[in-house]
Specification:
mainly alpha, rod-shaped, 94 residues, 89% helix
Length: 94
């Protein structure tokens, strides 16, 4: 074998090794991208759940605020009614 053949063989070997290393890197990169996509999908699902929960809490808060307002109105009405029937009532301070 002459020196030219050795360089050709070494060149092919280098190309084959480079191709193999690139294939391994690409496979690992593809696996990583797949994992990242799964993680992103799970995070999107959790985000949707959190948004739904936030909406439920907002609705519940509005409902409770309406109840508080109604109760305040009832108390205020009762206080006015009591004042009309029994005269002025001294308010207590805390």
């Amino acid at each position: 074998m002459n020196i030219g053949h050795i360089w050709v063989v070494l060149g092919f070997l280098l190309v084959a090794i480079t191709k193999y290393a690139t294939a391994v890197r690409l496979r690992h990169l593809a696996e990583r991208v797949h994992r990242d996509q799964q993680d992103a999908s799970q995070l999107r699902y959790k985000l949707v759940e959190a948004e739904e929960r936030e909406n439920q809490l907002k609705t519940e808060t509005e409902r409770l605020q309406a109840k508080v307002t109604a109760l305040r109105n009832v108390v205020s009405s009762l206080e006015r009614s009591l004042q009309r029937h029994s005269g002025p009532v001294a308010s207590s301070s805390n």
